[in-house]
Amino acid sequence: MQSSALSRYIGLIPSSVMIGAFFVIPFVLILLTSVSTPTDDGGYATGFDLQHFERFLTWFYIERALFSAGLCALIAVLSLLIAYPFTYFLTTFPPRSQTFWLIYILAQLSLSEVLIAFSWQILLSRTAGVANILVWIGVIEKSFAMTPSAGAVVAALVYLTVPFSVLLLFPALSRLDKSLIEASRTLGASPLRTFFTVIIPVTRPAIISGGVTVFVLTLGAIIVPQVLGKPEHWTLSVLITDQAIFNFNMPFASALAVVLLVLSATVIWLVTKFSGKKT
Amino acid sequence: MRALRSIYLALFALYLIGPILVIAAVSFNAKKFLAFPPRGFSFRWYAEVFVANDWFTALKNSLFIAFASASLSVLIAMPVAYFAWRYGLRYAKALLALGVAPFILPPVIMALAFLLFFTGIGLNGLMINVIIAHAVFLLALPLVTISLGLESVDHALIEASQTMGASNAVVFRTVILPIAAPFAFAGFAFCFVLSLNEYIIALMTVGFSVETLPIKIFNALRYGYTPVIASIAVIFMVINIVIFALIARFSNLARILGAME
Amino acid sequence: MPGLSIENVTKKFGTVTAVKDVNLQFNTGEMICFLGPSGCGKTTLLRMIAGLDEPTQGTIRFEDQDLTGVPVHQRNIGMVFQSFALFPHLNVGENISYAMRIRGHSRSECEDRARQLLDMVHLPGLEDRKISQLSGGQRQRVAIARALALNPQVFLLDEPMSALDANLREVMQIELRKLQQELGITTVVVTHDQTEAMTMADQIVVMGKAQVLQTGTPMEIYKTPVDKFVAGFIGTSNLLPAKMSGPDSVHVNGAVLNVGGNTGHFAQGDDVLLMTRPEEVFVHHPSDVDVANSVTGTVTFVRDIGATIEILVDCAGHEVISVLTPKDWPNVKVGDQVHVEMPAAACSVLAV
User: Fold this and answer.
1) Which chains are within 8 Å of C by 3+ CB pairs?
2) pTM for this structure?
3) pLDDT, tens digit, for every residue of B159-212?
4) Residue A230 lies in a domain
5) Where exactly are the structural domains of chain C?
6) Phi, psi at residue A90, to the nearest 5°?
């Protein structure tokens, strides 16, 4: 018995090494780099220097962080609003069409952000966009480009996150005890009333956790704000990429990444705490 | 009420599928510029993907990286999920929680972490870097699907096989593996698809030496649009759909996504 | 020939004692039922025989072979699980020949044996079915066939009938018993259903609170239960508080009843329980006088179900049930003051 207990741990060595070396160590490196000190030759060395965080604490970056948080919150709300009724109907579909929709939604969810940004750029362009359809039906006279604009960023980000919202709401809604709905209907509630007084309250935890996940997901969006927005629509993720790839300023990029990490963690923590108290 | 439901569902479907249809239409454009409604019809932009050397190389790179990282990810996840489930080892459970973490963080954080790590150890821009990075970043997917698969193995089945003379190794090979395999395949397929479409981690690990398709597309976007990108979007969508349809066929998609049996 | 023996076996899970100091001895070829309420330790005892759990103390032997410490897959046993535990990824034939396949027997050998076993459990031609296509009864037969594939020394069944509906249960109990007698294989069945135990067993082991309360043939246990728990668990029993008034008589409700010689180790003046079985208790019409060995009571309910008639009588606050055949019907109605005759041979005296 003893030797087999040992062999279990031996079986875990390769996985431990991979996770340790390629997740834990790189992750710790970010933390270390964010507080590193600059050296004379333009590099950086380990130390404890908060100058990169001080640089963050200027209005420009704070404004970026607030903008990122506000944008992500807006996207989370819009995305859930659009996805919720669909997901509810989806669970009432026959199994075959349910599977069909799940496959399509997974396929779109997996589609590269690059391709989604590109699609929306085309969709909102002057030569090949929806404006042409509006011209065709005679609403407007001349086609025009709808990018770059805040509206374009929001539309594409919602499009990016709706499949996630559907999949995040799907478990709770498909496990929802359908006799609750029947009970409510026999007690005289209309379908709409049942929806708001039974279905929504029962699935509240899923709505909240779905919202948080979409929020964090949108924080990670990089291409859409760059391609469809103006620089004033850039989020923290874009700035981090910019600092790391084009300015080669690893310490500052790391500091921004730590801020992003703290922002994500805080939102997750706040919302779970807030929602935990109420239920 | 019924009418309202139908209108909403139609609008939702249009919103979801509409953009993809527009891209598909653009990809069959005969002309070099992007136009909708399309002018003429041709497959030339699809041919371009396989004929133009740079696009085809990017496609091959992406497919290879996706295959290798998905395989590696399943190999890392398998023992962790197995030991956590079979023996309830606390260490394996902690490892499982740790392995899920990278996927939850905004990807740019892990991308930067990998960039710092690989430049730090002086191995910059190797293809193996992005393979490992994707395997670790996407580890949550095989961990979750394999755990789900293992949970569907009734402990009585294991005991039954033992009473018929099966040792631990035989139990694993003849009972646990066949039942959990479809779920491991699902984990592999999820990993494969997401790796294929992943941009920022690929950019920060090998962006200047190995071109994957998403990197190539983003670079191409800067020099103006070509319908080749539209045709790639369609190709990717088709690959995604085929793979998820395979998961649905050979595994239990609704269960993996959290529905009850 | 001595077959299965369990010597001083104790099993603890942490601080909980699941099985406490059990000693049992059976002959080869016997059918043994472990009977008791859930949580009494009967399943744990079965799992220790299988090797799925190891005893904390004690020894388990089969004939001259010490099984203690032998890993489960090296014991020659066949087991039927409560859920049947059929492999969902294998078809019926593959399930049945599993034990042979993992030992490297050829495909044709496996197929022949599967066919033979399916005939034995009356399911010919089902080799290629999927498990999900089988009914509950068919699953049980497949599970039995699978467990017997390698002619095991010991055949173990954990609550084998619990997943079946009531009608099927009775059929399967008889069929399983016939099969076991045909094969002459030492068999242990765990059950909480006393009818099941009475139908099938050579020896019944009644368990309660991790211990063995009584071992014996079904009739021994039915006629002479050692205490009120066993009496209550096997069949229906009437229990009346009484006091020993002599070596073979008791005081009940002001009457003195002869209880034959079954007074055990009780002394005069001891508080005891007088136990009778409903079918051995007779109710007499109020007008009957001089009913020997009887107590009086009030009829509270009469249930006539054709083949038998049940009369419930309240004797000074304690309920006595009498089950009579129509020819003994005393023509009483609810509210009548009746005499309840308890013949000496039907009386047992148990500790309070």
Assistant:
1) B
2) 0.80
3) 999 999 999 889 999 999 988 888 888 889 889 988 988 999 999 999 888 889
4) yes
5) 2-230, 238-351
6) -55, -40
